[in-house]
């Protein structure tokens, strides 16, 4: 594929400095690798022809690169600003297998050992977002908290561990598959958040019929085989209940802190207590409780109705000895944001639900697992 862009009329005759073209090309970053084209080994030939025409060859990791258009636009913008350049022609080709292997080795170079991503030495704060039952809006809370944190300047990732009921791709409005390079995956980015979900690998209609060992392996790969950026916060969207994935998470990410989501009515609160007790029994720190759908807000009259009762969030917080971090009302903007793939905190920041979620994101406590009961590292003298 070639991209041709005429920047000015061909009247200019000043010579083009090849080194200036290479320098301009050197500042362009691949939007998914977050490496310059030079660092990633993606720069091929650079030719300066007469009349200010510059011809470039860029080697992509895959011919079907979903960010090809964005990358081409960045190249044209940078190279086109070089004095004397009137026309930029970009020819996209694919890397050879040897080049892909070299890039994969380069990317793995600064990754932690397999299975140790987000371990005790990690600077990333990890929250496991859980609920006792489905339908309480746990994934919607996760998506909005992630975007709210990103808007506050944090580097944020979301791992969609709700394998059977994955909804993160829909909530973020992305459908493309992650880039995979020799067994290494790169998270998909949307709204300033790095994402990984089994939903990126299957169609919307395809059911995921996995049992315990496969679930554990999938979570292990999402943590160990994904080149996550240097995150400030990772949110893990768990499936409802206390099943296999939750137990695997306790093993693979021992420093994750629980965020329990419930709605006000006792039916949701009582079931969520089991998740909180499981966390306490496993010495998993509990960051707090979020009560979703606390009231139904009427957009026309601005009145609030406790459609699902009241007090469930505080009762849950009291039982599991954790703070109630906030109450999120249900309004049209929150629902529409999920349907459109633009979370409410970004698409409708002035609405009651978005404001409540932004407040919660701004005061998330950082809690760590107690050293009591944890194996301490030994130094051999």
TrEMBL record:
All copies of domain MIP18 family-like, residue ranges? 19-90
Judging by the UniProt lineage, the source's domain of life is Bacteria
Tagged with keyword Nucleotide-binding = yes
Q: Which residues bind ATP?
A: 132-139
Keyword set, alphabetical order: ATP-binding, Hydrolase, Iron, Iron-sulfur, Metal-binding, Nucleotide-binding
Asked if the record carries the keyword Membrane, the reply is no
Kindly give the InterPro entries that the UniProt entry links to this protein.
FSCA_dom_sf, MIP18-like, Mrp-like_CS, Mrp/NBP35_ATP-bd, NUBPL-like, P-loop_NTPase, YlxH/NBP35
**What is the role of the protein in this entry?**
Binds and transfers iron-sulfur (Fe-S) clusters to target apoproteins. Can hydrolyze ATP.
User: What is this protein identified as?
Assistant: Iron-sulfur cluster carrier protein
Organism of origin is Intrasporangium calvum (strain ATCC 23552 / DSM 43043 / JCM 3097 / NBRC 12989 / NCIMB 10167 / NRRL B-3866 / 7 KIP)
